[in-house]
Write a structure and sequence with these properties.
Layout (H helix, E strand, L loop, with lengths): L9 E5 L3 H14 L4 E6 L2 H11 L3 E5 L1 E2 L2 E2 H8 L5 E6 L4 H8 L3 E4 L4 H13 L7 H14 L5 E6 L2 E6 L3 E7 L2 E6 L4 E4 L3 H8 L4 E5 L2 E4 L3 E5 L5 E4 L4 E3 L5 H10 L1
Parallel strand pairs: 1-2, 1-3, 3-6, 6-7
Antiparallel strand pairs: 4-5, 8-9, 10-11, 10-14, 11-12, 13-14, 15-16, 16-17
Helix pairs in contact: 2-3, 4-6, 4-7
Length: 256
């Protein structure tokens, strides 16, 4: 039996693949009978109409919708959104951006335990709802990834800070936070793990040279030999390089 908050939970599914819709409906009916499914849609236009008509508690939203995406739907419906749980069969950049935004997603085929965890978050949303800034971080980073713009949107206490990735010297792990060191001497403490930064920045000139450091190779001033060695960054910081990352770093420096 689910917690009492789930008794009035309503949901809609927007997914262009029937077998995926059927599988999710089956899980919901068998394991979450307290959730009322209000309808399903197969594209952005149908999804917008469905959401406008029903105003559900939860939206299960496929990332890929034919020639469009679930993000197009989010832009179309504006800031008044239900609790969004993304679904996708591909763990690509979009999933990394969703994770970086601290939003919920399920990989297809949907795993029951992961669905339960996502629904637990729905139950807790009364106390800790999804924040509009989370969607703003997601949309900005998706737009930037599709352009030549080399900025990243970082969630800060006041909202968002747009940072040019060329200005990041290195990122340093601080438990579940990451300290972003910039070339102007400014430091930002972001409530994301270093692994999440690695996912977002690894497609550019960034390498995780150590469990606690992700460096921008374009800011390496000097490499000092050793078992793994160390690098001196443009701000004078010394960063250790693990033995297993040494060759990857050498290859990246050779490509510059």
């Amino acid at each position: 039996m689910l917690p009492s908050q789930t008794r009035n939970t309503t949901a809609v599914i927007v997914d262009d693949e029937q077998h995926c819709r059927d599988a999710l409906v089956g899980l919901l009916q068998r394991q979450f009978p307290e959730i009322t499914l209000l309808g399903m849609a197969t594209n952005v236009t149908e999804g917008v109409e469905l959401l406008d008509r029903h105003r559900p508690t939860v939206l299960f939203l496929d990332v890929e919708l034919g020639q469009q995406t679930g993000f197009d739907l989010l832009e179309a419906i504006g800031p008044e959104r239900p609790h969004v749980i993304f679904t996708t069969a591909h763990e690509g950049y979009a999933v990394k951006a969703i994770r970086f935004s601290a939003l919920d997603f399920l990989l297809k085929p949907v795993d029951l335990d992961e669905l339960r965890a996502a629904m637990d978050k729905v139950n807790q949303a009364i106390q800790s709802p999804q924040h509009p800034d989370q969607f703003m971080v997601l949309m900005k980073n998706l737009m930037l990834s599709a352009s030549s713009d080399k900025r990243i949107a970082l969630p800060v206490a006041e909202g968002l800070e747009m940072i040019n990735t060329d200005d990041i010297i290195y990122c340093e792990s601080a438990s579940n936070y990451t300290v972003v060191h910039q070339k102007d001497g400014k430091r930002l403490v972001i409530s994301r793990t270093l692994k999440e930064f690695e996912d977002m920045l690894g497609v550019q000139d960034f390498i995780r040279v150590h469990h606690s450091h992700l460096i921008n190779v374009r800011h390496v001033k000097k490499y000092i030999r050793g078992e793994g060695g160390e690098v001196i960054m443009s701000d004078g910081a010394n960063v250790a390089v693990s033995r297993r990352k040494k060759q990857e770093l050498m290859d990246s420096l050779a490509r510059l």
